[in-house]
């Protein structure tokens, strides 16, 4: 009797573990297919004009943006993960602007008054980088 | 020889290991998939957890236990590194989120249960005879 219940438990365990492996494979393949879609802005593409930067999928979109001096520039986080847009080069903030931590759906508007080219990064995920050119 | 307490520990440990993998898979689907390197590591963790749990249900349970311990210990160490300023592959864990709490609890439980399982199995294993004892057994049988 104990042997039978052990066999049953072993089978249940194998089914559960196999389901985990299969689910992982499905989610991974689905995400890889999604990644095959064209990116919002290709690396090396010239800076776009506008006054909005969307933060999505651990990227700034557009990664390079040109604005006129005096523009109110809005950063919006669409990721589930929190992000910042902090001017400077990781890990050193230069103090020109900082959105602070933005959780999903939150926005922060900064006033682009100073002209120049400003690199910025996410203080939480330093591999995220962007540039604002204020003319 | 099988030991009931070893079996109970094995099943509980396998379940904890599956929870470890499931949390990593859920976090991958949530947002980690977009984080370079870390996303792939989360997928590998979920796959490895599944395979370790499968091994725990087979006669290769010891290998499954050792794999499970290595997996959970590695995940815990990675989490600790990601919470430092240096981060892990540039990724810094922003806060102790509920998913992080579940993962840490499952990883700690998996390590303790798997170590317990290995210890119980060792206790239940027939005692290995030394040379003198083996000779005595042979002499007794041939007498």
Please explain how this structure is put together.
The complex is a heterodimer of chains A (135) and B (143). Chain A has 135 residues and is an alpha/beta fold. Chain A folds into two domains: 1-30; 52-134, Immunoglobulin-like. Helices cover 25% and strands 37% of the residues of chain A. Chain A is built from one helix and ten strands, in the order H-E-E-E-E-E-E-E-E-E-E. Chain A has a six-stranded mixed beta sheet, with no helix packed on it. A four-stranded mixed beta sheet of chain A has the order 3-2-5-8, with no helix packed on it. In chain A, a hairpin with a 2-residue loop joins strand 2 and strand 3 (59-61). The model of chain A has no long low-confidence stretch (mean pLDDT 86). Chain B has 143 residues and is an all-alpha fold. Chain B has one domain. Chain B has helices spanning 4-30, 38-56, 61-82, 98-124, 131-142. In chain B, helix 1 packs antiparallel against helix 2 and helix 3 (61-82) runs antiparallel to helix 4. The longest helix of chain B has 27 residues, at 4-30. Chain B is elongated and about 75 Å long. The mean pLDDT of chain B is 88. Chain A binds chain B through residues 2, 6, 9-11, 13-14, 16-18, 20-21, 23-25, 27-28, 31, 57-59, 79-82, 91, 101, 124-127, and chain B through 2, 4, 7, 11, 14-15, 18, 21-22, 25, 28-31, 33-36, 39, 43, 46-47, 49-51, 53-54, 56-58, 85, 87, 90-92, 94-95.
Structural class of chain A: alpha/beta
**Strand percentage of chain A, roughly?**
35-45%
The CATH topology annotation of the largest domain in chain A reads as Immunoglobulin-like
What is the H/E order of chain B? HHHHH
Ranges of chain A with pLDDT <50 over ≥5 residues?
A: none
**If you average the pLDDT of chain A, what whole number results?**
86
Assembly state of the chains shown: heterodimer
H/E order of the elements of chain A?
HEEEEEEEEEE
Mean pLDDT of chain B: 88
For the record, the CATH class of the largest domain in chain A is Mainly Beta
Largest interface chains and counts: A-B, 31 and 37 residues
Distance between the termini of chain B: 28 Å
- Proportion of residues in helical segments of chain B: over 70%
Class by SSE composition of chain B? mainly alpha
Give the CA-based shape of chain A: elongated
